[in-house]
């Protein structure tokens, strides 16, 4: 079998030696779109789950009747939040931001920009949860995919930034172990760029790879910003 059963990647691109799992006070529930689960080559949500010991992946589009989702929602040992923008979201990056003490359970939507919006719309049980957000000018290192604006990050990058903010607020003490999320992320991007440059693998993508700064940005990107500020509820 040419597949690693742990990271679910081909043996030649297996990530297991680079994974350094660690514990968090918070639990991260990664709500993953089926297309992300089945087809995604890089799979940032999947390896994020392997790194974050206190995490779980649930796959669906609308989760209101998903048994796994309902079970974690009902766990009273955690206070529930969803990482999603909105006028009333708690911006963890803002001066004076704070959350009450106690264990947090944070739902993170993992899908394309359009899919994430649909998933949030269909999952009405998320609508009344307190929302978390953060602001950052860091530019995504996801060179193999379009990102609409500075501050728009992949799932792994978003989790990395979120944990940084939670450390700053005293909600986590991960001692920079979260940096493994970026180490593994960068390795996956390197692998994708190597594949894109391999002339013997011309069927890897339909069109030649184009550097991010040379790509045309669709007008639709203006409303596909999922995790950051200045979006309507």
Rounded mean pLDDT is 84
Strand numbers in spatial order across the main sheet: 2-1-5-3-6-4
Output the helix-strand order.
EHHEHEEEHEHH
Radius of gyration: 18 Å
Oligomer: single chain
Approximately how much beta-strand content do the residues carry?
5-15%
Largest sheet: 6 strands, parallel
Quick one: how many beta strands? 6
Could you list the spans in which at least 5 consecutive residues all have pLDDT below 50?
221-233
Please bin the fraction of helical residues: 25-40%
- Please state the structural category: alpha/beta
Q: State the domain count.
A: 1
Shape: globular
* Cα distance spanning the termini: 46 Å
Number of helices: 6
Outline of the structure:
With 233 residues, the chain is an alpha/beta fold. 27% of the residues lie in helices and 12% in strands.
Please explain how this structure is put together.
The protein is an alpha/beta fold. The chain has one domain (17-84, 105-223). The chain is 27% helix and 12% strand. The protein is built from six helices and six strands. It has helices spanning 34-39, 44-51, 67-73, 113-122, 155-168, 179-197; strands at 27-32, 55-59, 79-83, 90-91, 104-110, 131-133. Strands 2-1-5-3-6-4 form a six-stranded parallel β-sheet, with helices on both faces. α2 (44-51) packs antiparallel against α6 (179-197) and α5 (155-168) runs antiparallel to α6. The chain is globular.
SSE layout and pairing:
Elements: E1 27-32, H1 34-39, H2 44-51, E2 55-59, H3 67-73, E3 79-83, E4 90-91, E5 104-110, H4 113-122, E6 131-133, H5 155-168, H6 179-197
Parallel strand pairs: 1-2, 1-5, 3-5, 3-6, 4-6
């Amino acid at each position: 079998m040419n597949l690693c059963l742990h990271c679910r990647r081909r043996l030649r691109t297996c990530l297991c030696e680079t994974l350094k799992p660690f514990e968090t006070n918070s639990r991260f529930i990664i709500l993953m779109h089926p297309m992300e689960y089945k087809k995604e080559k890089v799979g940032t949500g999947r390896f994020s789950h392997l790194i974050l010991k206190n995490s779980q992946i649930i796959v669906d589009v609308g989760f209101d009747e998903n048994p796994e989702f309902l079970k974690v929602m009902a766990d009273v040992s955690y206070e529930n939040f969803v990482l999603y923008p909105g006028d009333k979201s708690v911006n963890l990056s803002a001066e004076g931001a704070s959350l009450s003490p106690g264990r947090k359970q944070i739902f993170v939507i993992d899908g394309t920009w359009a899919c994430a919006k649909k998933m949030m719309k269909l999952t009405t049980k998320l609508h009344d949860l307190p929302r978390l957000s953060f602001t950052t000018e860091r530019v995504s290192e996801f060179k193999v995919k379009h990102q609409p604006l500075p501050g728009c990050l992949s799932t792994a990058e978003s989790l990395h930034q979120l944990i940084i903010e939670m450390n700053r607020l005293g909600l986590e003490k991960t001692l920079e172990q979260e940096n493994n999320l970026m180490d593994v992320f960068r390795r996956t991007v390197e692998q994708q760029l190597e594949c894109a440059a391999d002339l013997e693998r011309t069927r890897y993508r339909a069109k030649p790879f184009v550097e991010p700064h040379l790509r045309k940005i669709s007008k639709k990107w203006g409303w596909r910003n999922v995790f950051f500020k200045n979006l309507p509820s």
